[in-house]
Each structure stands twice: as structure tokens, then as C-alpha cells.
Amino acid sequence: MIELSAYTQLLVSYAILGGVYGLTALGLSLIWGVMKAVNWAHGDFLMVGMYTAFWTVTLFGIDPYIAAIVAFILLGLIGMATHIIAIEPVVEKPGGHEATLLTTLGISVILESLALILWSPSPRSYQNVYKDTFLEVLGIRTSVAEAIAFVVSIASIVAVDQFLKRVRIGKAIRAVSQNPVGARVVGIDVPKIRLMTFGLGVGLAGMAGVLVSTFYPNIRPLAGYVWDIASYVVVIFAGLGTIYGVIFAGIIIGVTEGFGTIVFSNAFRQILVYVVFLAVLLLRPQGLFGKALRRV
Amino acid sequence: MGLELKFTKKLIIAALLLIIGAIFPLFADEFLVSILMQAYLWAFLAMSWDVIGGYGGQFSLGHAAFLALGAYTSTILLQGYNVSPWVGMWAAGVVAGAAGALVGIASLRLKGPFFALGTIAFAELVKLLLLYFKGITGGPLGILITKSGPENMLFETQTPYYYLMFVLMLAGILFLKWFESSRFGIGLVAVREDEEAAEGVGINVYRTKVIGAAISAFLTGIGGTIYAQWIHFIRPDILVKLEYSTQIAAIDVVGGAGSPYGGLIGALILVPLSLYLNALFGGMIAGLSLILYGVVLLIVVVMIPGGIYGLLRRRLRRKLPDQR
Amino acid sequence: MIEVLEVKGVVKRFGGLVALNKVSLSVKEREFLGLIGPNGSGKTTLFNVITGYYRPEEGRVYYRGDDITGLRPHLIVKKGIARTFQIPKPFGRLTVLENVMSAAMYGRKAASRSEAKEIAMDWLEYVRLKEKADVEAKALNIVERKLMELARALSTGPDLLLLDELVAGLNPSEMMEVVKLVRKLVDERGLTIIMVEHVMKAVMSISDRVFVLHRGAKLAEGSPQEVSRDPKVIEAYLGEPIQV
């Protein structure tokens, strides 16, 4: 009986992680949907979010959730700057998608190197009361930090969805993702929408970074890499361009990963993640919920 | 008349470079020799990548996996079965080539950035598998090369390694020059330019892509052997690095993908520069050379398509219109 | 007279749209068949089915008695069928010569490199493009691209040639030149040709027979004179009788 509860505990933990995967993946999904760009630096933006939380909490002693808002804005701005340098110049040209992979790879390298130089490779973490307080729901114990992270992730995804449906700019974003040419014809400033979408996507990643940092004691410059793969698995699993799909996909991936840890050794579990990733990429690149993207 | 002169000029330049390259170790100090030598090796790796990355138009970011597979094959044969790397390197190429064929098959279904993502995942998978099968590969402890002697491609000083890599680099250039006007090479470029039209002239696009990837991986695997023989120690996490895959691609893109000289040009610029920066700032700030690759990649992709070689070609073409 | 190509009851659907509706057609050796019809009537779709780019939902395609339905395009080339595309598809960064050589090397002849060079030069000369042999294909203008595509298709060594709107966009004198070149292919070199064309004057003057496609189905078939006077054809497509 105790065994079962421990397993469930672990799976819930991973499901929560999955929720945050979903938030990160949402950013990628939006960026792909609107401009068919691949953002290889996404995990690194998340990493910057983590450090934002670390430094604002350590230096100013403020609550990490306020740092989340700071991170959202800060990363949003950084994202827009990145967009101007690395995305907009290439995205409309032929071969633009591959080019964005290259340019964001460059950005990723730059971010990681800067982080290494500025903040050194040693892992950081910070104390916060949420990490140490626990909740008990239906017999499952989680830290408040994890619980809030999950709730905020889901809430953010819902908020984004509503934003896309009700707010004018949001609707413009949807229009561009469905038909960029048509959007231009009806007078939407497509480059500006792209800029804002990229900023939004990156801002979400930054926020996810803060949320993760509240319960994940391992803030390092290269932390982003793990998240890159995980969020890409989720995005592709859900289907590039979907919104709510990422919640389900995130949770499924999170739980699968957790399941993998229980059943298999750590090494094998990692192998499993990549095998699943490749399998999805090859067999069903449109994911569970997306529409078919490739023409053969 | 003008064309003949241009050809002779090219020949003279090439001969001069060859001679300088050949006698370089005689007058330069070991440090410089070591830098140039590494440039040659990376140039060769970039040229191998160029077969599918440049000529094939398939942007792979997983080539470090082929490097590792090659290195492991020849090293296991050497340390475990006393097979000289002079022989082992061909086996290394075959093993890497087989893996390349798998990537080639994947390229049939995955286009553009999806393919790149797939190769990144593939490389990670290879690394994990190398770590997992400890019995064969020594797992996370790696394999130390303890043999010695030129018959085992192991030398006491840098100079023989210099010539080894010099020859390798030249072989790469000669291969690409032959390749780009060979039947298969033209077919591969045709597939890159327009798959449907390629099918329409009788090219089996599937087979071409798979074989192209296999060739690229085969050559990279051989490069892996040479690399292992030089560093004497291999381990999955020091060989299969996304940085290496990126470096290979970046060097080729900067120098000029889809050309015989792009790899060399890119390597001659980027490798000494990054080594210099590393030496200047020490191992602590390992990120700086990576920043370099990132920035350079960014600049080239955004502003100089076709790389430096492409830039040179365009300048030259203004003097001789309508010529290639 | 041997039947070179036989299309039997081909149906091609794209989702809900029926692009080809039980189309049957046959072409005899050394025939010049004109394929006409309004835009969207399915002419290029039919070409794509014959050459293996599309798989039909129903029906079969026979080449000299062999069932070639659904074979991949490169295999169909090896059987002896070649085609040009409505919008030319050059291998942009290869030279004109390399473009045409690739066809000779990979086509039915499977020539060696040196043979391929000869074959390519011959065909380039035929289409009057020889001086541009070493030019990068993407530098060519639209007329030159079409001619190169013709030379390329011919270099595969086909018996049956499918031409998709070869003369559209050419001025009258260019058009006459190309029409003569193409007709010579049948008369002097023994090819069989199916030509899709909108320019009525061109089609009617060089075709032995004309096949009219309308909304994915056969509307009429016969000699140019018959077809141009057919009231169904006039109503659907021509507007008024054409002087042949």
C-alpha cells in the first residue's frame, strides 16, 4: 500500500512537471504557428527565467511569483530583441525555417556562453517558503511550490487561449497563423504580430523558468538543454500550433517520463525519451491534435 | 585566352598553398602546427558533412554521432583485437555509414527543421547507447588508447599527425571536386534543387538521399578514427556533443556549403580563432568560443548566404559573366 | 499501329473534389495528340497520374501493354515516358548542361558521364540552347527554361513525351519555332507526343488528333477539324469555331 502511494506520488510530481512542460511548449507552438520558425533557444530563455528568479529573490528578497511577472516582461523584451536580430531577417526568405533553426541555435549558444561567463557553471538554488510547505490532496503530498506551478501553468495556458480568442491582438495572431497572406490583405501588420508573438512565446518560457525554479534546485547555464528536448517532444506530440493540446501532451509526457523512472533505470529512461521522440517525429509529425503539416 | 589564364593562375595558387602546407612544420613552431592541423581535421569533417548538408541540402545537426561511431569502431578494434587503425578506419567508416543510412531513411519523411531536430535526437540516442552498452564501449569511463607505433597510426610527435591530417584534408577536397561532377553528385544536387523534377528525369530520390547520407557519415566516421588516434582517449560525452555537430555545420556554412573549398575556408577561419580565444581566456570561460560560433553563424545565415566561398564566387563572376 | 499508351477509366479524387472522372484515352505510336480543355479540367492531373506523381483511385494506365499504374515517377521514366512541367522546374544551381546530362545519366539510356555529355549537347543544339550550356540554370529566362526542360526530357530517351503548356507565354515567332521543333520530333524521330496547350492555333495546327477534357471527363475526341466544330466544345471552351 505504501509502495503504491510512493509511485503515485512520483507520477503526480511528474504530471506537475508536465504542466510546466506544457507552458513552455505553448510558447514554441505559438511561434511555429505564426511564423513557422523553430526556436532552438527556447530552453535557454527558460534558463534565463530561472536566473531572473534567482537574482531577484536573492538580491531583493521578493516573492518568486512576483519574479514570474518580472521574468515574463523581461524575457518578452529579450524575445523581441532576438526576433529582430535572428528571426525576422530570415523568416520570409526561402529556406527560412532551417535558417531560423541556425540563427536561434546561434542565439542559444550566445545565451549559454554569456550565462557561463556571467554566472559561472556552478548550480544555484534559492530558499523559498513554498518549497518547504506541503499540501495534502486526496492522499497525495506535494509542495506548495509544485502545486502553484501547476495551477499557474494551466491558468496561463487558459489565459493565452482566451487572449487569442477575445483580444484584438490575439485574434490578429490567430489570423496570421492561419493565413499570413490573407491577414496582410485585411490590413494586419504581419511583421508586428510576428514580433509580438515571439516576445509572448519567449515571455511564457521565462515565466515557466521561474515556476520551475521554485521547486527545482538546479539552476545552471546549461539547464536549458534538457528543456529544449522535453518541450519539443511535447510540442510535436501535441501537434505544432495547438493550444490546449499542450496541456494533455505535457502531462502525458511528464507521466511517461515518471513511469519510465520507476520501471526502468535512469539511463534507459533517457533512451526511451529519445526513441519516443524519434518515433513521433517519424510516424506522426502532426502530433495528436495538430493538422498535417507536411506535404509528401 | 582569358579562361586559360585564369586556370593557370588557379593552378599556381593551388601549388603554392600545397607547398606552404607541406613545409609548414619545418619552419613553424609546434603550437602553430597544432592549430593548423586541427583546422585540417575540422575541415575534413566539414567537407564530409557537406555531402548531405551542402550538396544534399539536408541540414544535419547530429554528425558528432558519426564521429563517435567511427572513433569507437576503430578504437575497439585496436585495443580489443589488435587491428591497426589503418585498416580499422575503413570499418569505422562502414559502421558510421550504416548509421548514416538510417538517418538518410529518416530524411525521407522529415524535411527541413524537423530533420535537423531528428538528427539532434538521433545523436543523443547514439550517445546514450554508447554509455549503456558498457561491456563493449567501456561506458562512461571511455577507452584509453594504450598501444603505440606508426603501424597503429600513433606517433610520438605532432609532425606526423600534421601530415596525416593534411593529407586527409586534401583527400577531402579532391573527393568533393570529383564528387560534384560525378553521376551521383549531380543526382544528389538535382534532388536538392527540385525533388519532383529529379524524379521526372529518372532519379530514385529515396535511394539518392539514403546513399548520400551514408557517404557523408562514412567519411565522418573515418574522421572520427583520425581524431581518436590523435587524442588517445574517447568517451561518449566528449565525442557526441551538440557543440561538435554545430561546429561542423557552422564551419561549412561559413566557408561555403555545397562547394569543395567551403570546409577548408571555414575551418581556417573559425578553428584558429576559437582555439586562440580559448587559449586567451582559459578553460574557465569555455563559452567564449561557442559565442563565436553562434555570432558567426548568425551573421552568415542572415547576411552572407553561400558562405565566404559563395561571396568570392559572386565577386569573380562579375568579371566573367555567365561562367561557373 | 501499336497502342503506346492506354488510360482506362481513371478516377482521381482530392478529398471531395473529383479531378478525373472515368477518363479513358489511348494514343498510337507516332501520333501527336493535343489535350485541351478549360482551366481546372484535369489536364495536368491526368499527366500526373500517367507519370506516377498521383495514384488514381480507380482505373489503370498501360504503356505498351505493361500496367504502369501507380509506379513511381522515376520508374516510369525508365519505361520510356518523359514529361515537361507547366511551370518549368530547372535544377537551379546546376548548369544547363548538367541539367540535361542528369536526364541522360538517369533516364532510360542510363548513359555514362561522357556519353551523357554528348547526348545532352545534341539535344541542346536541337533546341538552340547550346551556347548557354555552361550557364547556371537559374539565370535563364522563361523561354530558355522551357527549352531546357524540353531538352532535358528528351535526354531521358523517351518514346512517349508529355508536354505541359510548352508554348504558353512565348511570342508568335518563338511559338512557331518551338511548334516546328516539336512536330519534327514525331515526323523525323518517331516519338509519340501528347501536348497540353491553351493556345488553340498551336494545338490545332500540329495535332493529328485532339482530346477535349472538361471538368475531369472527356468532352470530345477527334481530328482538329471535327473537334473545333463540335458544338459541345465550342460552348464549353472555344467560344467560336476555330479556323484550322
What brief labels describe this structure?
heterotrimer; B: 324 residues; mainly alpha; ABC transporter involved in vitamin B12 uptake, BtuC; two-stranded antiparallel ribbon; 2 strands; 1% strand; globular; C: 244 residues; alpha/beta; Rossmann fold; 2 domains; six-stranded mixed beta sheet; four-stranded antiparallel beta sheet
Description of the molecule:
The complex is a heterotrimer of chains A (296), B (324) and C (244). Helices cover 77% and strands 3% of the residues of chain A. Chain A is an all-alpha fold. Chain A has a single domain, classed as ABC transporter involved in vitamin B12 uptake, BtuC, CATH 1.10.3470. A two-stranded antiparallel sheet of chain A has the order 1-2. In chain A, a hairpin with a 2-residue loop joins strand 1 and strand 2. In chain A, helix 1 packs across helix 10 and helix 7 packs across helix 9. Chain A starts with a helix and ends in a 13-residue tail after the last helix. In chain A, 54% of the residues are buried. With 324 residues, chain B is mainly α. Chain B is 79% helix and 1% strand. The longest helix of chain B is centred in the C-terminal third of the chain and has 27 residues. Chain B is globular and about 55 Å long. Chain B starts with a helix and ends in a 5-residue tail after the last helix. The longest helix of chain C is centred in the last third of the chain and has 16 residues. The mean pLDDT of chain C is 91. With 244 residues, chain C is α/β, with parallel strands linked by helices. In chain C, strands 6-7-8-3-9-10 form a 6-stranded mixed β-sheet, with helices on both faces. In chain C, strands 2-1-4-5 form a 4-stranded antiparallel β-sheet, covered by helices on one side. Chain C has 9 helices and 10 strands. The radius of gyration of chain C is 18 Å and the shape is globular. Chains in contact: A-B, B-C.
* DSSP summary, beta strand count of chain A: 2
In the predicted model, the low-confidence regions of chain A spanning at least 5 consecutive residues are: 292-296
Helical amount among residues of chain A, as a percent range? over 70%
Shape of chain C: globular
What would CATH call the class of the largest domain in chain C? Alpha Beta
CATH fold title of the largest domain in chain C: Rossmann fold
How much of the polypeptide of chain A forms β-strand, as a percent range? under 5%
Which percent band covers the strand fraction of chain C?
25-35%
User: CATH homologous superfamily of the largest domain in chain C?
Assistant: P-loop containing nucleotide triphosphate hydrolases
Order of helices and strands of chain C: EEEHEEHEHHHEHEHEEHH
Structural class computed from helices and strand pairing of chain C: alpha/beta
Helical content band of chain C: 25-40%
Q: Give the uncertain stretches of chain C in residue-range form.
A: none
* Mean pLDDT rating of chain A: 80
- In the CATH hierarchy, the architecture of the largest domain in chain C is 3-Layer(aba) Sandwich
